[in-house]
Known about the structure:
The complex is a heterodimer. Chain A contains 11 helices and no strands. Chain A is mainly alpha-helical. In chain A, α4 packs antiparallel against α5 and α6 runs antiparallel to α8 (173-183). Chain A is globular, with a radius of gyration of 21 Å. The model of chain B has no long low-confidence stretch (mean pLDDT 90). Chains A and B meet through α3, α4, α5, α9 and α10 of A and α2 of B.
Amino acid sequence: MNRIVKFYHEMGSPPSFYRITSHWLKPMLFLAIVLTLYGLVDGLFFAPTDYQQGDSYRIIFVHVPAAWMSMFIYAIIGITGIITFVWRMKVAEAVMMASVPIGALFTVITLLTGMLWGKPMWGTYWDWDARMTSELILLFLYIGVAGIYSAYEEDPRKAARLAALVAIIGLVNLPVIRYSVTWWSSIHQGSSVSLMGGSNGIQDWDMLRPLLVMALATKFYYIYSMLTRTQTYLLKTESKKKWVAEAVGSQAETIQSTTSNDGAS
Amino acid sequence: MMELFDMGKYNFYVWGSIGIFVLALVVDFIGASSKHRKIKKQIKAQNRKIDNRRKQA
C-alpha cells in the first residue's frame, strides 16, 4: 500500500513524472505499432467476410476502436479536469491538455471512417441522427476545451482551470453517445461488442480478435502520444525551473544559476 | 496475392478508411515529437542566453 501511495505522490510532481514516464515512451510506441500492424493484417486479410455487409464491414477495425478512444479520452479529460478544478494538480492539468489533440483526432477519424462506411451501407455519407450528431458534438467539445485554454494561454494555470470547467460540463455527452442507438431509433447499427456476452453483435472470434487487438493498439498509442505531449507541456510551463534545465541537458552553470526551486507542484 | 487486397466494390471505402486512420496517427506522431523537440531547443537557447549574460556581467 505504501508503495502505491508513494507512486501516486511521485506522479503528482512534474520532475518525477517526467523522469518516470520517459522510460515508458518507447515501449508504448513499440506495442502500438506492432499491435496495429497485427490487427490490421488480421482484420483485413484473415477475418472472414460478413454475410450481410461483405468486405465493407472491415472498416469496423478502425472505426470502432477510434470511436471507443474518442470517448475514453474524453472521460480521461473529464476526470483530470475534476482533479485540476478541485485539487489544482499541475500534472493533471498537463495530462488533460495533452489528451485534447489526440482525442479530437480520434473523433475526426471516427466521423470520417463512419461516413465512408455509411455511404455503401446506408446510401448516404451523413445523416443527422442521434449517434452521428452526438459524436459531432463531442468534436466541438474537444475544440471548445482547446479554444478556452488558448484564449487564456498567457496564464496557463487559469487557462487550465477554465478549460477543465468546460470539460466537466461536457461529460454529460458521453452517456448520450453511448446510449444514443438505444434511446432513439437510429440508422446506426447497435453495439458490436458486449461485455456481458449478449446475443447481439459479433459472435465470431476471428472477427472479434482483430477488433480487440486494434482497441489495445489505440490505447497504447494514446498513452504514447499523451505522455509525449504532457512532457512538452510540463517543460513549457516550468521552463524556468532547475529540473527542466537538467532534463533538457543545459550546461552545469545554468543549472546552478537558475532558481533553486526544484519544481514540485 | 493482389486479390487479397481486393475488397470488390468496397475498395474505395475500406482502403480510404484505413488510409485516414494511418495518416491521422502518423500526423499526430510527427506533430507531438516535433513540438517536443522544439520546446527543448527553445529552453536550451534561453538558458544559454542567461549564462552568457551572467558571464559578461
